[in-house]
Amino acid sequence: MSEVKSVPTDYGRSRLTARTRRRAARRGKRDGRAGIGPEHYARQLERGLRMALEDLRSRFVTRNAAHIDRVHAESARIVTEYDHRREDVPAALARFGGWVSQWRTEVTACQQRGLALAACTDQELAHYEAAYTRARHRAEARARRRARREAERRADARGEPRPEPPEPLQPSDPHAAGGVISAPDEIWTGAPDWMLDEALVRRALHILEQRIGPAAAAAGRGERGTR
């Protein structure tokens, strides 16, 4: 069975294209008729989502390599000035805070694009499950009608009374189809501190927090100075 090929190429999209909706509905209809469980499609979608998220983060980090290198270099300078030379360099500290703030802002935007992609995948699964449930309901109704006609044919052949008609088949809930996609992990939902976990950066952030306060340091705020 072919892999799902519906991961959007523009990572900021939060809604499905009409083409993707139609493809998901066709697949749901086909699987529903064939009796294939929706878990298979959900696993394919989840694999595609994980690959897309990994690619998104990799491209983001590569594109912003110069920025994070600047943050790391300034972290080394801050640690050297404050821990080794015991000098106060507020301008350099403010510049460092500004770069950290900008980095976190950009990471947050990337995280939002990743979460939008996850939401898009959930929407696709919902379209698939709706079509799957309708197709399964129709297939089951047809099977019940065939079984009833066969039972009536046998009863007529034996001269027996026809069996009572079965209770009408109730429509199934699309949400109970069974497909589940795991939520994105903490790298997409947690603090925007990508690439800030090296020892020098953590120490520089601690110095920043000591000098300007925890709230400002958490945001990484600061004005760019010249020293």
Keywords:
227 residues, mainly alpha, disordered C terminus
Plain-language structure description:
The chain is mostly helical and 227 residues long. It is built from seven helices and no strands. The protein is rod-shaped, with a radius of gyration of 29 Å. The protein starts with 17 loop residues before the first helix and ends in an 8-residue tail after the last helix.
Short description:
The chain has helices at residues 18-34, 39-63, 65-84, 90-158, 186-189, 199-212, 214-219. With 227 residues, the protein is an all-alpha fold.
Please give the largest β-sheet: none
Elements, N to C (H/E)? HHHHHHH
> What is the SS-derived class?
mainly alpha
Low-confidence stretches: 1-12, 220-227
Could you say which overall geometry the principal axes of the C-alpha atoms support? rod-shaped
Please state the average pLDDT score. 80
Strand content: under 5%
End-to-end separation in angstroms reads: 61 Å
Count of DSSP H/I helices: 7
In which range does the helix fraction lie?
55-70%
Secondary structure tally: strands: 0
- Radius of gyration from CA coordinates: 29 Å
Helix and strand layout, with pairings?
Elements: H1 18-34, H2 39-63, H3 65-84, H4 90-158, H5 186-189, H6 199-212, H7 214-219
Helix pairs in contact: 1-4, 2-4, 3-4, 3-6
